[in-house]
Amino acid sequence: KKKKKLSKNKSKERRKRKANFPKKIKKLNVKIIKTKTKNRFKKKINPKAKKIKVSKKAKQRKILKVQKRVKEDLITKIIKFQLSLKPNFKFNLNFNLEKYIQSFFDKISETIERYKIVKQDQKRKLKLEQIEKERLEKINFQKEKEEEEKLKIKIKEQALKDEIRLEKQRNRDIKLFLRKEQALIRIEQAEKQKQFLQQLKLEKQIERFRIREVKELEKLEKISLKEKREDYAGLQERIEKLKEKYRIIRDQKIRERVEALGVKIQGDEDRETLLQKEKEYTIARQKIEFALESFYRSASSLVFQLNKRHITRHMSILRCIDRRFETGEIFVKWDEAVDEEWLLLIYIKNNSPDEGIVIEDKTNPEKNISHEFKNNEIFKASDTMVDALTQLIAKKREKNTN
Length: 402
Prior knowledge:
Mean pLDDT: 74
Helix content: over 70%
Oligomer: single chain
Strand content: 5-15%
Shape: elongated
Largest sheet: 5 strands, antiparallel
């Protein structure tokens, strides 16, 4: 009883203490007390040992089960072997002939049916093969036909190309021939012009002769007047002979000069007709000069602008040569080049201003181009000249830089 009372008193004191402490501290104390009490009386258990015991028991159970199964299998095998040794012969003596015959004929009919089916299949296969063969032959024939047509088309195209190429070559040859002819005509014209200039020189000489003749006649007249010869008639006849001689020389020179210009002369023309023909020729030459006047101005201004703005110090300058009166030509060339090595050549087609103006372009050494213009197409002609010369200068500058 005393012990009980003491325990009750202790518990009351504990309760009072708990009441005096705050709630959080109470919880902490309780936990601590619990852990302490539990840890004192807990037994330490080795988990590895437990696991080992469990696994051993399970293994023993499994071994027992396997042994039982092996025993049962052995027993069943023995029973099956005993049963297999027992005789199991059953004799069925119910022999039916009709069934046997029926089965025999059924087999024959089955083989016949199978043969027919196989034969039909074979026929169908052969027919399909024949159809496929015909189809392939048709396709091959069609392909061959298409190839032949393509080959014919190619041959025709090649023939057409050859014809076009030959036509171009023919046109090129004709143009070249015409150019050569024009060049020959121009050379002849230049030769005639030279002769004409020589004739002009001779004309001047004749004029001097005429002046000298007049002077001589005056001297003779003076001498005749001074001496007062009796044979004055003979002297007058002599004077007339001298006059006729000089007149014949003058007419001959005029005829030669007109012939040198290329004017046809019959031979019985007098002095006036010869002078008229010469005048007509000079008018025609003036027409040629006037027709080429605008083209000459355009070419000379173009050369001036190119020399001023685009020609570098390491390049040669361009020259515009005027040979309108001599040969009826204008050409542009490098300063150090010969006259025959021109870059642009301008002349009248067939020496007739009505037929137009021709500009030959040799700025590109690979191909020579000739352009034909009318008399009023000066702007178009100047554009072509500008393009040709600017491209040439650009190529020259690229070469110099490289």
